[in-house]
Amino acid sequence: MIGILIIAHAPLASALRECALHVFPDCVEGVLALDIGPQDPPEDSLRRAHAAMAALGTPEVLLLSDVFGATPCNVAQQLGDGLNTRLVAGVNLPMLLRSVCYRHESLESLAARAQAGGTQGVMPVGSTAPQNQTGQRHAPSHRDHQQ
Fold it and tell me: How many other CB atoms are there within 10 angstroms of residue 143's CB atom?
């Protein structure tokens, strides 16, 4: 199975991992977290990230980071070789849960599922009306469709 390494600003990586373990307790060895603190030197973070990847003990690793262009993502980019790793930035809980569920697929497919899980997990929720109502909710000329 593919290993998953979450690299994010502290304490997000550990918090996401704990949430995933709450839902899927059997994934404890395949999902690791690396929290990057505000004072952590990038060289130290990179060293810790290499150690975390080695601890996973898997030939392929999906790297999940929080913000593209920030230090955690930059560290993750330095780990990536494009062959045995894939990096997806913008990690959220739906992305991580989707990733945990499909770790048996190819790395390329897993990265695509992670991205889809992250984007499909973000949606507006009405506070006064139940979701998935029947009946017309838009003007007749409005062409929006639900997924």
Answer: 7
